[in-house]
Amino acid sequence: MRTLMTAHIALYVLLAASQLFASEDIYQDVLRSSAFVVAGSSQGSGALVDADKRIVFTNYHVVGETKDVRVMFPQFADGELVTSRQAMLDRNQEDGIPGKVIETDPRRDLALIQLESVPADVEPIKLASRSAGPGQTVHSIGNPATSMAMWLYTSGTVRQLYRREFTLENQQEVNAHIIETDQPINKGDSGGPVVNSKGELVAVVSAFSKTGNLVSLAIDIRELKALLNGDNSTSDRRIKELAIQENWSYKARPDGAFLLQIPTDNGISQVRVESKTSEYLQVAFRSVISLGKTFEGELESGLAEKLMVDSMLKKFGAWQIERGEKTNFLLYKVDVPEDTSDTVLRASILLAANVTADFRKNLEKPTGSNATTAKDSTSPTTTPQATITASDLTGTWTSRVEKGQQTINFQVTFGADGSIAWSGMNDREQILKLRGTFKIQDNDLHYVCDETLYQAKIRLLDSNRLAYDDGSIKLTLLRNDAASTPPSTASQPTLSGRWISTEKTAAGISTTNIMTFKDNQFTWTSRVGKIELTNLSGDYTLTGNELKLKATAGLNLKATIKLLDNQRMSFKDNTNDLEFTRE
What we know:
The chain contains eight helices and 37 strands. The strands form six sheets. The chain has an eight-stranded antiparallel β-barrel. It has an eight-stranded antiparallel beta barrel with strand order 30-31-32-33-34-35-36-37. It is 17% helix and 47% strand. The protein is of the alpha+beta class. The protein has four domains: 22-228, Thrombin, subunit H (Beta Barrel), CATH 2.40.10; 237-364, Yope Regulator, Chain: A (2-Layer Sandwich); 390-479, Lipocalin, CATH 2.40.128; 497-582, Beta Barrel (Lipocalin), CATH 2.40.128.
């Protein structure tokens, strides 16, 4: 019996010794890859994962929004490892290698750092081909703040591998595959490597439970591999791909939003594409937001009303104000369905960029004696016209604009004394009210209201109809006594032929609609800039002023048309209010 017990004791001693030697070997292997990361006042751990690209991984909550960090690898003095934390911190400015945070993924709690250089004796850590499993022994090296020493070794057992959502102390939300272990993890170990018994990386230290008994969480290897391959779970990858394809400068924010610098004909616009979506009527929408201007207090007199009307007349997007403690922001926002095509997403980004670029150059007017002239808009047609005088305008003119379910009634009165009064009403309230003086110069209308100078191109289509275009609003105004008398349709010519409507919106984008009618067949192509949005064809019928379109795609449309003369046609449906010219 004594001999058997002695044999068992000897076996246990041999097993313990072999495990000790194995742990020592693992420690030495991992030590050659381990890193100490200093990001401002934050400190954590990490490891070299790619020597050629000089990439070190750590946790996002270690670096946060810091872009410039310093990284230190183990150092030796007289052949001995320097383990003093204070000694390492003292050497940080001199020996710490500068690095740039090049990728962050808060939802995975991971960040990638690119170093300026890598010491020759530092080796990249080996990546495991698969995750660790329950019961498997794992090992870590980290730099816990609770110890005055560096490069501390810990080991433990994997409890389980699963996907988990949790919130860190900084309120950062994490949603990733993790391995749960019983390792004694502390602050400062964050971002450090977790390896298997072969010294292969299986996870990245992330968090520990303050209430549980030795419950530690590490981000699984599959999440790091995905990020290294360019798959960022926090950001929408296709936004990045679109930016690269279009050669737009971009910056991915930690919250997943992208800041894009979009070149336009009127300068550079900054556009923010949100990563998070909001839901409306069970459809998820992503916001595309472009900055128009920053301001303090309130907007200049008259500008808010003008922008409100501008929003109502646009088919996509609207102006909004976001208020801060001191600085306020005038933004143009377009909500895009989450599952929309890349083509529509690109068009929405360009739309927002052009709206704000055009606004900054042409629509924003200083107040007072330094008021500047608004952008010259092209006249509604290029047909030569007789000189307009103030007496030609005297009286009240009205216009009715329908956009979807929204109806706006405009009224402008030109007084014989040079006064002008504008008003705009929707179905519920007055949305526009301006009073001031006007003058006519070279068929351009100039008017000053609330110390703001406005300019528009005008043209008398006939004695009772006035075309108005100020670059933001485009209207056909009817004299008040003629507004209730629609043009006669008794002698209207046929629709047969090709009709084109081209508008340049306040965004500076050309919207072109081409309709062709022949033998009760129609085609309708719609483009925004160079992007084709609609291509329909099918049968049509015209009864009086009611045009019915039956597309082969199964879409039925109904519109009201008026042939203004043999070459011009007005077209109104639930979403369009257009004027076509026959080719």
